[in-house]
Amino acid sequence: MTSQIDKANAFHALHVKGNPVVLYNAWDPGTAAIVAKAGAKAIATGSWPVAAAFGFADGEKIPLDVALDNIRRIVAAVDLPVTMDLEGGYGVVPEQVAKTVSRAIEAGAIGFNFEDQVVGGEGLHDTALQAERVAAAAGAIKASGVPAFLNARTDVFLKNKPDTHGEKHVDEAVERARAYAKAGAHGFFAPGLGDEKLIGRLCREAELPVNIIALAHVPPKAKLAELGVARISYGPVPYRQMAEWLEAKARAAFE
């Protein structure tokens, strides 16, 4: 089996602007094995589907111990890099973020999504504070000896409806991307952004490889590649589609 360090290095190498790695998000060992069998180069979890699969709401409602045990089981089920959605790091202060990241690496993860929205509160963390939190996560990664991929997420776009997205939102996103890169992030995640012009500008101005979620209003893979995207993930989409299918089949069975 490939070592955790080798998996981490391989995952870094998958992030190429213009040739995006596709992460079709799984939520447990069974779905991870299915996605791996389909040809995935890496496995990613999403906080919403993992929480839903265990009967919790999103927003760090699932106990961290449960989420980490799930990651251990996924890592054991597939011989691929596994990246984990850590939401806001299960704590506001940088020291707690660092502890959470250390525990996730110990569980076998080789990467993390780490968001800047105030979990359980309103709005986003101040850019300077979030940069400190990113730096704490980066420090924990360095201390672990595993070169895990830190995907710094901004919720600038998710906090605003797609038809209101404009240059001012990209201005803020670019500012945050630069601050997070300086703090030690390896990637920049902008979920909710779907406008081609704005995606293109973000990819040009952010030095970090950009991650976009393939939502309904987002351009197809070929166009995202053309715009310079380096990572495409599916977030809660697979779980929601599975849930709709399962409910329809159950209703048919009960009729």
Automatic annotation (TrEMBL):
Pfam families cross-referenced by the UniProt entry: PEP_mutase (PF13714)
Taxonomic superkingdom: Bacteria
InterPro entries for this protein: ICL/PEPM, Pyrv/PenolPyrv_kinase-like_dom, Pyrv_kinase-like_dom_sf
PANTHER family linked to this entry: CARBOXYPHOSPHONOENOLPYRUVATE PHOSPHONOMUTASE-LIKE PROTEIN (AFU_ORTHOLOGUE AFUA_5G07230), PHOSPHOENOLPYRUVATE CARBOXYLASE
The name this protein goes by in its record: 2-methylisocitrate lyase-like PEP mutase family enzyme
